[in-house]
Amino acid sequence: MDLDKIISELQYKAVRSSGAGGQNVNKVASKVVLTFDIEQSQGLSHEEKNRIKIKLAPRLTSEFLLILNGEEDRSQLKNKTLVTKRFVEIIKTALIVPKSRKATKTPRSAIEKRIKTKRSTSEIKQSRRKPNIDSPI
User: Fold this and answer.
1) Are 43 and 1 within 8 A, CB to CB?
2) In the chain, which end has fewer C-beta atoms inside a 10 angstrom radius, N or C?
3) pLDDT band at residue 135, thresholds of 50, 70 and 90?
4) DSSP string, the chain
5) Which tens digit of pLDDT belongs to each residue from 12-24?
6) Domains of the chain
7) Do the strands 11-15 and 65-70 form a parallel or antiparallel pair, or are they unpaired?
8) Model confidence, pTM
9) What is the CA radius of gyration of the chain?
């Protein structure tokens, strides 16, 4: 993953932010919309693209575009830096390869200990029973 190349491929668009904003609401385009095309990216390998497509499937459009909105601040520049940081975090977490699980066997000592405790509890319960008088000794 070439992060500098990926960041250079990002497309930003400034849009008017929704919600209350006073007199500036109809004049200032402070909301930033970040768009990243996974298919056309030169900074990702084929395997990385596939991993991102699988992990971020709910967030992607049908054309494999990742779209993020940033409207936390009144400043367009701050919103741009915030949405870029969020994008980098999302991409890094999507590219983490999970560790493969190694199957382990139950140790023999644990099996023997379990059987031993079962025997002892069985003997305790047998000793609580009423003695059987009918059987010859």
Assistant:
1) yes
2) C
3) low
4) --HHHHHHT-EEEEEPPPS--GGGTTT---EEEEEEESTT-SSS-HHHHHHHHHHTGGGB-TT-EEEEEE-SSS-HHHHHHHHHHHHHHHHHHHTPPPPPPPP-PPPHHHHHHHHHHHHHHHHHHHHHSPP-SSS--
5) 888 887 766 666 6
6) 3-94 (3.30.160.20)
7) unpaired
8) 0.67
9) 31
